[in-house]
Amino acid sequence: MINLKEFEVWFITGSQKLYGEETLAQVAEHARAIAIGLNDAAQIPVRIVYKPIVKTSEEIFDILQQANVAANCIGIITWMHTFSPAKMWIRGLNSLQKPLLHLHTQYNRDIPWNTIDMDFMNLNQSAHGDREFGFIVTRMRRDRKVVVGHWQETEVLDEINIWSRAAAGWHDWQGAKFVRFGDNMRDVAVTEGDKVEAQMKFGFSVNTHAVGDLVAVINQVTDASVQSLIQEYERCYTMSDELLEGGAVRSSIYEAAKIELGLLKFLEDGGFKGFTDTFEDLHGMIQLPGIAAQRLMEAGYGFAGEGDWKTAALVRACKVMGAGLAGGNAFMEDYTYHFEPENTMVLGSHMLEVDASLAKGKASLEVHPLGIGGKNDPARLVFNVAAGKALNASLIDMGNRFRLLVNEVEAVEAEHDLPLLPVARVLWKTLPNMKTACAAWIYAGGAHHTVYSQNLTTAHLSDFANIADLEYMTIGADTTLNTFRKELQWNDIYYGNK
Q1: Among 61, 114, 132, 169, which is least packed by CB within 10 angstroms?
Q2: CA distance 107 to 465
Q3: Tens-digit pLDDT profile for residues 121-150
Q4: Strand order through the sheet with 274-277
Q5: pLDDT tens, 64-113?
Q6: pTM for this structure?
């Protein structure tokens, strides 16, 4: 499971030696109190670690270098309690390789109207100290998150929470490995991409392993392990009599469990954080992984079908960002439309692999034919996805940059049983409406594969895109098609000249 408390964000406070030891001691005391307060805040999922105040160019460079190499440090929060001449920060910021949040706050919430004097003013200079720091970061063209407000405000804590989750998702990508069993689905464009460029830009690698390598591991799985996993299936899911011991299709459940155990071992042994496969390359496998992909996703692995490594990586990042929050993140596909006037909807699903972290209630484990891939009938979890606010996110290779496209949606309760559709499924209404959302998605080159998220918002994905230096486009309640298309044109000019 993903535990965000393993990650640290360092709280670094700027000042200068000009103020003298007494004032600097007060600065350190206030900074430590804020760091402790942020660390203890229930909203913030990572550890906030106080670091000694920095007063010189050498101290700044040293602490930022330490942050760069600290394995569990996923980013830094800076705050200028007093005035910190910003030229001191240039060398350190030039070397910084971790995400940056600039907290524009002050220790006291209110001005002490009856007692305020020049000593108080001399100590509490964040109002202009942070502006000095802000100038140099902007002048150096460094992206960062700026959060404004008193450090105890709920809104401030919520913004730090969102940013820290985005930083955790980015940190998890650094050095991550994703395995591609076989190649891309033949002749499909959007699931392709430049894996070399992605590794340089995002920090994760994607390499192909032959399906035969996986089959060899699957064939080593013991009967005892399979029987134990089947017992877990029986505890966790609704199963018909034909799947129970002695049932007509019990063998399919056995093979599915064997595939899951083999896949898990392959991923663990290789240190992979996600994978993708394709139904066109299953040589030596009995059935296409269905429940295996669903359960491994639910455990935190990234996955996408048909060789779509970009979506598999994005699923993993969203799993990390959403860790500990109610709801889930899973591989999804826009499958078919309901064009009833005044009640337009999208039916989202996939052949087998939507993850049960999205499920409303207990999933049903079922075996049905799959008219693609040419293998035995695969086992899969069947369920309806819970209603509520959600989003779909797509990572797209545009040739000269990557684009992260997000559409806000509203999932609705299924009004029909869909007895002949034995897959995980969800109905949603797109924002702002079907015509605008679908047209905008197509104009932006959005993929048919997405990450469907119940617990992340556009704020999470926007912060993640900023950290990753991704082009970011969102389709939501306020989107108009003319403005959206102009933004796409502006972005083409910006990235064409960058």
Answers
A1: 114
A2: 30
A3: 888 999 999 999 999 999 999 999 999 999
A4: 205-209, 177-181, 274-277, 302-305
A5: 999 999 999 999 999 999 999 999 999 999 999 999 999 999 999 999 99
A6: 0.96
